[in-house]
Amino acid sequence: MRRALLALVVLLALAAGCASVPGSSDVTVLRRVGDAAEPSAPPGPARDAGPLETVRGWVLASGATAERHQAARAFLTPAAAGTWDDGAAPVVVNDQVDTVFADRPAPPGQASVRIRATALGVLTPEGVFVAGVRPVEVDVGLTEQNGQWRISSLPTGTIVRRSDLRANTRPVRTWFLDTQRAGPVSDPRYLATSPARSVPTRTLQYLLAGPSESLAGAAVSSLPVGTTLRSDVTLTPEGTAVVDLSRTGPLDDPRRREIAQQVTLTLAGIGVSQVRLLVDGEPLLPATPEIAVGDTLAGLPPEVARRPDLPVDPVVGGPGDAEVPVLVADGGRLRLLSGEPAGGPAGRGAYQAVSASASFEGDVAVVAEDTPGGDPAARRARLLTGAGGSELAVSGIEGRSLVRPTWTPDGTEVWSVQDGSTVVRGVRQGPGGAVRPVAVDAAALTGAGVTAPPGAAGPVSAVRISPDGSRLALVAGGHVLVAAIARDGAGGARLGSVTELRPEALDQVLDVGWTRTDQLVVVGNRADRPVTLASVDGLDVESLSTTNLTPPVTAVAARPGRPLVVSDQGGTWTLPLDGGSTSGGDVWQSVPGFGAGTVPAYPG
User: Fold this and answer.
1) pTM for the whole thing?
2) Fewest C-beta atoms under 10 Å: which of 120, 189, 348, 603?
């Protein structure tokens, strides 16, 4: 499965010279070791609390969704509790929420309180977080009844702090297919943890809802539109989930296998290792009534099954890729993180490489720069490609500048950005073959503030393709954008839905990488947060350790399950990650033999 990748390592080393569900049933609670129990209900109104404290208590309780927000309704008058519509998409705000008296008089026994916060986005009924940073000001009316203040008028929906949302939900990944149906694509959701007994049923409801708008054109579902669950998902004493779907039309064998893949991979994320998958009470795959996660992974093409973003087979574990090499562009040469020169002319400095990336098929893409006569105005950058350790060929992609290249997971395409504004891709003509430039429709970036020429507001300075190939992360004007990679049946590609991630928190950014398909690592100029983890939807932002680092951090290499590698003013550093968070301590470890200004890259 990893033959091509291991071949690249050998080449480099040798060349270096060495909807609601009808019915109900008893469902066994699915909980993996380490999973948190159902969150406890937040406290109700404090006796003799004033209007400000009462409104704040309502906000703090709004993250608990159990029994139609029963905890939050306790802060309302009986009349308001009976009429409040809590079903609208909750507005997710940052954790700093102010409650102040509104600037208008109120008669005795009544009060008007204004809630002020910064909205981060909304959570849709399908569990999708849609980013949208904006100020929020909402007025809430209160009435004093029997000496106690209660909310008597309020808007529809809820206002939920980010921390309360995360305390009452768990992230799950729903799995779909790329538009060519060549491999699985994940789409993050946030699932309320209460009631725990319905977690598997609600997880599959999210799957049945189809891909989110953020993946429009990049993902499809083989589940026919209108498919529902005939009953709740149950779990047998042996741990097999029983899923019974409604039939909405004829299904051929390929589509049945794709449905089985989507369902098993999605349930694997909540700890289910085997599924009895039925359609109208009959096995979806008659020859395989029960489908294990390991069987699904084994049935994928090798170039897909090796992806580290897929769920882990509980029997054999993950694919394991400790041998994955890191290429480092250092002073015009390509080196391995071990310090050894990479193979071929690139390792000897023949191309004056300023950045590079390898594919999993053993190919290398190098950005080579020339500055004739030392005149910066005459600088030209060219993208060279070829088999690792060999002579590299001109691809036909060039400009005044090219960002570090990035490969699709199958190694058939390499992408870059020309002159800060034009997204370009080269399509490989077979393993080790020449690369042919093909256009990318990137008009969606214009609406996101990316402009030309270089030096204008919003030039693109970094791009990385996600581990599943469905998204492109970009750094534009110092901010982070994520775009869907939409493809058609004729080989065309365009950038679809574009989201800017947390502009108030992620600015002065210089580089970006993928630690998971649903998480990015961002590095840049900010002294207070030179290295930051951010969820792909912008909900979560977490600063990592700065110990030993000297900002700005100019480049980062990331890969699921592997240590982060960064470059700063003092050299090159590594930090282990475990499941998307730091592990093995919070101190960055120096990589001997490298100075400042290196550009590291994992394959991809």
Assistant:
1) 0.88
2) 348
Q: In degrees rounded to 5, what are phi and psi of residue 243?
A: -120, 120
Count of other CB atoms within 10 angstroms of residue 234? 17
Half-sphere exposure of 427 (CA within 13 A, CB side): 8
CB crowding 120-131: b at 16 or more within 10 Å, else e? bbbbbebbbbbb
Q: Name the packing angle between helices 199-208 and 253-268 (round to 10°).
A: 140
How far from 116 is each of 302, 481, 505, CA to CA, in Å?
Answer: 52, 27, 19
Upper half-sphere CA count for residue 446 (Cβ side, 13 Å): 7
H/E run at residue 10: helix 3-15
Residue type (1 letter), 241? A
pLDDT of residue 483: 97
Residue 602 per-residue DSSP state: -
Written as one string, the DSSP assignment of 274-300 is EEEEEETTEESSTT-SEEEHHHHHHTS
127-179 pLDDT, tens per residue? Answer: 999 999 999 999 999 999 999 999 999 999 999 999 999 999 999 999 999 99
Q: Which of 343, 345, 347, 313 minimizes the C-alpha distance to 329?
A: 347
User: Residue 448: what are its φ and ψ, rounded to 5°?
Assistant: -95, 5
Structure confidence at residue 361 as a pLDDT band (50, 70, 90): confident
Residues 472 and 482: their CA atoms lie apart, in Å, by 6
Rounded Cα gap, residues 328 and 308, in angstroms? 21
Mean pLDDT of 224-237: 95
Q: Cα(489)–Cα(173) distance, rounded to whole angstroms?
A: 26
> Residue 309 carries which side chain, given as an amino acid letter?
D
Asked if pLDDT for residue 486 goes beyond 90, the answer is yes
- Cα of first residue to Cα of last residue in the chain, in angstroms, is 16
* Separation CA 481–CA 503 (nearest Å): 10
Residue 287, pLDDT above cutoff 60: yes
**Tokens matching residue 57:** 């208590």
DSSP characters over 374-412: G-GGG-EEEEEEEETTS--EEEEEEES-BPPPEE-TTSS
Give 312-328 pLDDT, tens digit per residue.
766 655 555 556 789 99
Cβ atoms within 10 A of the Cβ of 316, count?
A: 11
Provide the pLDDT for residue 323: 64
d(CA 398, CA 409): 23
Beta-carbon contacts of residue 550 (< 8 Å; ≥ 6 apart): 568, 569, 570
